Amino acid sequence: MKAAQGESVAIAMGLYNGGLHLDEQLASVAAQDHANWSLIISDDGSTDTSADQVRRFASGPGQGRVSLVQGPGKGFAQNYLSLLRHPLTRQCSHVALCDQDDTWLPMRLGRGLDALRSFVGRPALYCARTLVCDVDLNPLHVSPKWPRPFSLRNAMVQNVASGNTIMLNRAMADIAAEAAPAAQTAGIAAHDWWLYQLASASGAQIVQDDQPVLHYRQHDRNTMGRNDTASARLDRLKQILDGTFSRWIDANCQALMAVPQFLEPDAQTILGQFPAIRSERAAVRLKAFRAIGLYRQGRADDMALRVAVAFGRL
To answer: What is the CATH architecture assignment of 9-217?
Structure first.
């Protein structure tokens, strides 16, 4: 099924000193099979040539479609939250998130629109696999195919919705826009993790696409890089042990609990039970953990989660 050209997509790109790879990404946006798109770029204080590159694109292939706005200057998560709330982003039927240094395959928008068409009027979030590449876009491998369901019980303790592939239908984008101020106040660490949590907590349909839709460029300036390497797993262990992971979860819980109007009863139950996993003695923590049924996708990561619960590091 081909995406209907009448469906409009607001592409939301957070930008910060991305000039080195920005032109390639902009060219891949212009080459999309689905032509009914607009691009809203929030520049979070770049000191390189990024803004000038956007202006050149806006006067060429992107003429009449590109808006360059000023970001809040508080990091990438806050920048994307501000984009979700921006009036320009709220004018289209769909919102697609876009990183500054990837390159999209031509069907990236079309596949998302096709997948979301069954959920008109019902909130839904689409995400897909990526083709992980080196800095020169030489393919390394396809990102993991997650074996377990996408749900709040997973989202509370793991982000598996690749932010650079996320597309929201209008109903989900409206929820995100209304909930974003609470996430900004809470100081969440990652906008895509929060979107995964918000979607699953609000009863939205989460659509996983096993087809890669973009080249995910890896380089030494990635804010968040691939999460499937040995070094990434070691970094996650360090984040658990030094309390970083716990602080992230604090912020995520605060952001969700501040918008009870969007939470399904099951989500409210999970959030109500969650503190027992973190503050009680070990036996109570483990019992509450089993009762809620939290899980991570991989076997090793799931075991690490259980160890974190047992030692009070969640």
So the answer is: Alpha-Beta Complex (3.90)
Query: How far apart are the two ends of the chain, measured CA to CA in Å?
Result: 44
What residues contact residue 199 under an 8 Å CB cut-off, 6+ apart? 123, 124, 125, 161, 172, 206
Sequence-separated (6 or more) residues with CB below 8 Å from residue 56: none
Phi-psi map region of 98: left, alpha, beta (phi>0 left; psi -120 to 50 alpha): beta
List, for residues 103-135, the tens digit of each pLDDT value: 999 999 999 999 999 999 999 999 999 999 999
Contact 122, 188 (CB under 8 A): no
Domain boundaries defined on the chain? 9-217, 230-310
Could you report the per-residue pLDDT of 20-56, keeping only the tens digit for each? 999 999 999 999 999 999 999 999 999 999 999 999 9
